[in-house]
Every structure is written in C-alpha cells, then in structure tokens.
Specification:
The chain is mostly helical. 51% of the residues lie in helices and 8% in strands. It contains nine helices and three strands, in the order αβαααααβαβαα. The protein has a three-stranded parallel sheet with strand order 1-2-3, with helices on both faces. The two termini are 25 Å apart.
C-alpha cells in the first residue's frame, strides 16, 4: 500500500516530492495488478488468527505463497515479524481498513499522468499479491517513468534482493542530483548477526 500512498502524494502534492520510487504497486485500474486467484482464495477463506502462534503460522503460509520464489524464503524472519505485529495489536481490523483504503482510492491512472518528477517503478515478476501488470501500468501512466523488473521477486523484500533494490534506488536518486553515500556492502554473515 506504500506505493499507492507515494503515488497519491506525488500526484496531489508535487512540491513535496523530488523523485518517486513505486515498488510492488499498481494504478488501481480494473483488471490490472490484481491478486492471483490463489491469493484471493487464501485471503477470503482464512479466518482471523486467535493466538500469536496462529498469526505466525498464517503469515508463514501466506508469505510462502506470495513471497519471492527466486530468493531463499526466511520463514524465521516472517514468523518473528508476525509475532511482533501480534504483540502490538492482534486485531484483524487493520487488514480490513487497508483493503478498504485500496479499493476506495480507485483508479489513479489519470492523476498519475500529472506526476512530473523522475520516477522509478520496481516490480517482481513473481508477485502474486499485485500482479506485474500493476507495475507496468504504473510505469506507462507516469510520464518518463523507468520500469525495472526483478526476476524471482514476489510481494516481499527478501534479503537476497536488497542489494539490487538499494542499487536501483541509489542510482535513481543520484541520477537526479541527490548526493548519496554508498555504504560498504553488507555481508550475509553481518545480516545474520543483526537478525
């Protein structure tokens, strides 16, 4: 949903945005960027979790489905995040509000045509939550937008894709004059130490 919010801010408040990066998002146009039928079935047939353990199981199953199939699946990290989210607020109302917000935003294609800042669109070719047609439609709707497809990326941010995504965003920012200081590459061992 963050990509949709960023698109709306860029379209409605152009003076507050210098560049836009839209990741795993869509325009809201009918029949574009829609979840796979298998994803809809999972969302519509699963009942809200009643316990922290159920919330962790549900997240693990959902992200095994919608997550990246071209990168290693970190079930431990998914479960840990789901547990933290449960501890913060176990109510399923947030998911309902998120879906309501997505549907209420409608088709943003026309307003995206007013975005006049350098735009990068990033999408995975294995996204079962927001079909890749959503990313392609976003790039077509925004004048001059650049589309980058990451092979094997689903609807998550696996560690294996971080380097590519960071490089794309950094190159995008520097191409429009932002001074970006590149940090030394993070090794897999360092990531495990922080997990």
């Amino acid at each position: 949903m963050g990509g949709m919010i960023a698109q709306t801010v860029a379209a409605h408040h152009p003076g507050r945005v210098r560049t836009l990066t839209s990741i795993m998002s869509t325009t809201g146009a009918p029949r574009l960027g829609r979840p796979a039928m298998s994803t809809w079935r999972r969302m519509l047939t699963s009942r809200p979790p009643r316990t922290r353990a159920e919330a962790m199981d549900r997240a693990a199953n959902m992200f095994r489905h919608i997550g990246s199939h071209g990168f290693p699946y970190d079930e431990h990290a998914v479960r840990e995040y789901a547990g933290i989210a449960w501890d913060r607020n176990p109510s399923p109302a947030g998911i309902v509000r998120q879906l309501a917000g997505i549907f209420a935003s409608g088709d943003r294609t026309a307003e995206l045509g007013h975005i006049d800042v350098p735009t990068l669109v990033i999408h995975g070719d294995r996204d079962r939550m927001v079909h890749p047609t959503g990313g392609a439609a976003t790039a077509r709707a925004i004048p001059g937008a650049r589309m980058e497809t990451i092979t094997g990326l689903g609807h998550d941010l696996p560690i294996g894709a971080w380097g590519r995504i960071i490089d794309l965003i950094t190159d995008h920012a520097t191409s429009v004059g932002f001074a970006v200081h590149r940090a030394a590459p993070v090794t897999h061992t360092e990531l495990e130490e922080h997990a």
